[in-house]
Predict the structure.
Amino acid sequence: MAEQSAGTAELPTAEDTKALGAKLGALLRAGDVVVLSGPLGAGKTVLAKGIAEAMDVDGPVTSPTFVLARVHRARRSGAPAMIHVDMYRLLDHAGADLLGELDSLDLDTDLADAVVVVEWGEGLVERLSDRHLDIRLERAAETEVRTAIWRWSRP
Ligand SMILES: Nc1ncnc2c1ncn2[C@@H]1O[C@H](COP(=O)(O)OP(=O)(O)OP(=O)(O)O)[C@@H](O)[C@H]1O
Ligand SMILES: [Mg+2]
């Protein structure tokens, strides 16, 4: 599958951010880890909604603030589930054992059979897979416009 290894986009509205998620989400495969970074309210969850739409998984995708992770199952059999993770609450815990945490959640889904989409996990989740899509969202003061910068890394 041809794919650009990196890109940037200017995103005037939340709909544009969701559409970027859908565009990139259509290229995801089981075993990929998506690392969403950027400040509070940047639009990471909005982008995850677009990924979910393209992957055709059960919704709704919401901010998983009070749970570490949520599994969104594929509607088509054989297609990968999306596991949406928010590590904000783990940030304080130096060296948090994400794999252990995910294991203890008993997600009933093998990570290698799913696409894992992680907010606030940069620097911690890359070890889950050697196949990553890093997406950084930036926001400037006094405007709704977001900027996205992304990069695929797949062996
Ligand atoms: N261009 C834009 N792109 C994305 N979201 C936008 C944009 N303009 C306005 N918004 C609004 O900003 C908010 C982004 O919220 P969202 O929950 O996606 O952020 P987040 O990065 O996940 O934050 P958190 O770090 O708290 O999880 C939404 O309310 C959305 O409607
Ligand atoms: Mg969020």
Notes: The radius of gyration is 15 Å. The mean pLDDT is 88.
